[in-house]
Write a structure and sequence with these properties.
The complex is a heterodimer. Chain A is mainly α. Chain A has two domains: 270 residues, no CATH class; 109 residues, Periplasmic binding protein-like II (D-Maltodextrin-Binding Protein, domain 2, 3-Layer(aba) Sandwich). In chain A, 67% of the residues lie in helices and 5% in strands. In chain A, strand 1, helix 3 and strand 2 form a beta-alpha-beta unit. In chain A, helix 1 packs across helix 11, helix 11 crosses helix 16 and helix 13 runs antiparallel to helix 15. In chain B, the strands form two sheets. Chain B has a six-stranded mixed beta sheet, sandwiched between helices. Chain B has a domain of 174 residues: P-loop containing nucleotide triphosphate hydrolases (Rossmann fold, 3-Layer(aba) Sandwich), CATH 3.40.50. In chain B, helix 3 packs parallel to helix 5 and helix 5 packs parallel to helix 6. Helix content of chain B is 40%, strand content 27%. Classes of the chains: A mainly alpha, B alpha/beta. The interface between A and B is medium-sized, with 21 and 29 residues.
């Protein structure tokens, strides 16, 4: 193995890559812009939507209730509710988001309650619309207060203590750090994006250094030099890996900065509404990056192996585009709630790293899994690199014209 | 010195089955001589020269280039060969000088020697005006000069040219033929392939006529004229190749 020759090839490929606009865009510009746009744009606007929904009074319609003036008055007086005049086509109004909910008070509701009967109030909503959910919760709160006040009055009339109504309390309490809560909520997204970035960064150089070289007619030139094909392919592979890691590093850095900036921007009261803020420690970013290394090695080798079969850049693109989907499926699978690391999943490439990074983001370090995943991904990467070297020794692949 | 012994190359084609691109050819090229491989398109010239440059591996037989076997010691062979064809393009994003330096380094040259050598070649080929210009910004003539400099940088004793003037304008083609002659005068072993008769007549010391991967005739121009009782090389070529050509067509 001649490190000198590998170094010569690597330096030359690096010089060419740095002079290529397409490589610079895919490896540097996209990762730098993606996370600020994503974090700043999507997450911030989501926070805004939640904030707006919590501030805006919910428009509702009250159906019936003419003979239940007390509870209707309570609804009308509620600060975060705005009762609009009753209309028959409330379903359309809810569907079209003209109103957020409708509450159906049965005839004789107030009298029935006072007689000790058990009438039911219905709330009509648009499931999935967050503002409709807010409206329903607010209506429920009015009725709950009305019910509690009534029970309290009855107990007082009988000279019974108020605690009879609620002999004990149940409270849920979060015991994990805000980082973990946020990690659990959005953690899956981060490895998904880092894996995608490793792929994006490797893709263009892999095509350019193989199919592109054939297309430009330089493959025969380089093959006529005394360099061994193994050294040639390793030099090329190292450049693709550099691009992949540069993209991953830049995305990790840009991700860290974006989340930090977001934490400074979003007002703290948003958290009260059940929207945990994302904050990542530098060591988490570093850990995600370390796990991205074998993935980048795997991608670089696989992409070189596939694109060397292509005769032109365009042909390589058509081979590699399906690869993006193949990679995205396990990466997305890890984002699904409830999918957690098991020894079996720990040996499935990409899915394993994706799941592990999800854990890392929450600050959980399963060292056994880390070792297993790092090792298995490295083995896959080694096999892929071996195949890439083999492909470069096949005449039918190099001269597939 | 190049010594070719029963060199063969077979390819597998899905539709056509096995193709004998080169079929057991034997010949010898001496230092200070230009050996011209003359043949029609698809005769097996490129495959033969690619095997000699160790870009392709022979199926059978072998060749010895500067004392090194092309099958056993391909890297050693390549270190002693300068290979130029119209298919050997330049790296578009490297400058002319970087291109030549890259190949010098791949040939194991150290920086001091490389610097001297590059300067000498750039002076001789009058390349200093565009030495730091990127290859994709060079004219065809400049590109050819850069390619020549690339093949010469390690001063190889053997030069292989595969249809080096194909598609070039007359002035650029003349640069190449002058360079080929210069290589011979420097005592290098030169082999080149073409289908242009005038080039062969002007340049070659020994001519080999190839068709269907077989070497059908060989000799100096005078010998071929004597053997076939013809003065015009084109007529000689047609006489030699025609029976095989029609046989191949019928087949």
């Amino acid at each position: 193995m001649s490190l000198r020759n590998i170094g010569i090839v690597y330096r030359k490929e690096l010089t060419e890559a740095l002079r290529d606009r397409r490589t610079l865009i895919s490896s540097i510009l996209i990762p730098l812009l993606l996370f600020p746009v994503l974090a700043g744009g999507v997450v911030y606007s989501f926070a805004e939507i939640l904030g707006e929904a919590s501030r805006e009074p919910s428009k509702i319609v009250v159906l019936g209730g003419a003979d239940s003036p007390d509870v209707v008055a309570d609804l009308k007086n509620a600060k975060n509710l705005r009762v609009v005049s009753a209309t028959a086509n409330y379903v359309d109004l809810i569907s079209n988001k003209k109103i957020r909910a409708a509450v159906d008070i049965p005839p004789g509701f107030q009298a029935a309650v006072e007689r000790g009967e058990h009438p039911a109030v219905k709330i009509y909503i648009f499931t999935g619309d967050i503002k409709s959910a807010f409206g329903a919760t607010r209506i429920e709160r009015v009725f709950t207060e009305y019910r509690d006040a009534m029970v309290r009055g009855r107990l007082a009339a009988q000279n019974l203590p108020e605690s009879l109504m609620k002999p004990f309390d149940i409270r849920q309490q979060n015991v994990v750090s805000p980082e973990k809560v946020a990690g659990e909520t959005y953690g899956g997204l981060i490895p998904y994006l880092v894996i995608l970035m490793c792929m994006t960064g490797a893709m263009y150089p892999a095509m350019d250094l193989t199919a592109g070289e054939k297309e430009r007619g330089t493959m025969e030139t380089i093959l006529s030099s005394p360099i061994q094909r193994t050294h040639l392919v390793i030099g090329k592979f190292l450049l693709v890996l550099t691009a992949s890691l540069a993209t991953a590093t830049l995305s990790a850095a840009s991700m860290g900065v974006s989340f930090w900036a977001l934490a400074q921007l979003v007002p703290p009261q948003t958290e009260v509404e059940g929207f945990p803020m994302m904050s990542m420690h530098p060591e988490t970013v570093l850990a995600v990056f370390v796990m991205a290394v074998p993935v980048a090695v795997l991608f670089s080798a696989v992409l070189i192996t596939i694109s060397v079969f292509a005769k032109s850049y365009k042909e390589a693109q058509s081979y590699l585009t399906p690869m993006t989907f193949i990679v995205l499926v396990p990466a997305i699978a890890a984002v699904l709630p409830g999918v957690e690391l098991t020894p079996k999943l720990a040996v499935i490439p990409i899915l394993n790293v994706s799941l592990l990074c999800k854990e890392l983001v929450t600050g959980t370090y399963h060292w056994n899994y880390i070792a297993l995943i790092f090792l298995s991904t490295s083995v896959y990467a080694g096999i892929a690199l071996f195949l890439a070297v083999k492909m470069f020794q096949r005449e039918s692949v190099l001269f597939s014209s | 010195m190049i010594e070719v012994r029963n060199l063969s190359k077979r390819f597998r084609d899905k539709r056509r089955g096995e193709i004998r691109a080169v079929d057991s050819i034997t010949f010898r090229c001496q230092p200070g001589q230009i050996y011209g491989l003359l043949g029609a398109n698809g005769a097996g010239k490129t495959t033969t020269l690619r095997m000699l440059a160790t870009i392709l591996e022979p199926t059978d037989g072998t060749a010895v280039v500067c004392g090194y076997d092309i099958v056993e010691q391909p890297e050693k062979v390549r270190a002693n060969v300068g290979f130029l064809s119209t298919a050997t393009a330049l790296y578009p994003r490297l400058t002319a000088r970087e291109m030549v330096q890259y190949f010098g380094r791949l040939n194991g040259m150290d920086d001091a020697l490389l610097k001297k050598r590059v300067e000498a070649i750039f002076d001789r080929l009058d390349m200093n005006g565009f030495r730091d210009r990127r290859c994709d910004k060079l004219s065809t003539g400049m590109k050819q000069k850069t390619s020549i400099a690339r093949t010469l940088v390690h001063d190889p004793p053997v030069m292989i040219f595969d249809e080096p003037t194909l598609g070039l304008d007359i002035m650029t083609a003349r640069t190449i033929t002058a360079f080929i002659r210069e290589c011979r005068d420097l005592g290098k072993t030169v082999i080149f392939s073409t289908h242009i008769m005038s080039e062969v007549e002007k340049l070659c010391d020994v001519i080999g006529i190839i068709q269907d991967g077989k070497l059908l005739a060989e000799g100096t121009l005078a010998q071929l004229r004597d053997q076939h009782n013809e003065q015009d090389l084109e007529e000689i070529f047609v006489k030699v190749v025609a029976p095989h050509y029609s046989a191949a067509e019928d087949h």
